[in-house]
Amino acid sequence: MLRIHKADKNMELGTIVVAALVGGVAGAVVGLLLAPKCGKDLRQGIGNKADNALERVEDVTTQHVGALKQQGTDLVEKGKILAEDLQTFIQDSLRNKKSGDIPINLANDTKEEASDIT
Q1: Dihedral sign, Cα of residue 105, residue 108, residue 113, residue 116
Q2: Dihedral angle over CA of 71, 74, 75, 79, nearest 10
Q3: At 85, is the secondary structure helix, strand, or coil?
Q4: d(Cα 106, Cα 109) in Å, to the nearest integer?
Q5: Is the CB of residue 4 less than 8 Å from the CB of residue 12?
């Protein structure tokens, strides 16, 4: 029995998908060329179908670009907030180190003591 590695399966799947797409396009072109229409009508029909396909691709692309822009804007805002928080944390830590203070968080200390007891 022939054994196929995972990498080979993925490559074969990709090859199958590409072959199916190429075959589908080739079949569509041959079907249009052999259609019982005169040349002018056929060319016009092909042009209309191509225009419709381009419009759909543009619509989908525009939607995805808008979503990606929004996600990028959101990520930039989150990054700015994180940078500000980190800067504040570092400044507070440096200030505490210079003054010799050790900040104590009683809420966390109480929880740790309670977990040590149990």
Answers
A1: negative
A2: 170
A3: helix
A4: 5
A5: yes
Query: Distance (Å, rounded) from C-alpha 4 to C-alpha 27?
Result: 31
Residues 12-70 pLDDT 10s: 777 888 888 888 888 887 877 776 767 778 778 878 888 888 888 888 888 888 888 89
pLDDT of residue 1: 47
3-state helix, strand, coil in the chain (%, to 5): 85, 0, 15
pLDDT digits (tens, 9 = 90+) for 64-95: 888 888 999 999 999 999 999 999 999 888 88
User: Rounded to whole angstroms, how far apart are CA atoms 99 and 60?
Assistant: 58
Q: Residue 33 in contact with residue 46, Cβ under 8 Å?
A: no
Helices (H), 1-118: 6-33, 39-99, 106-117
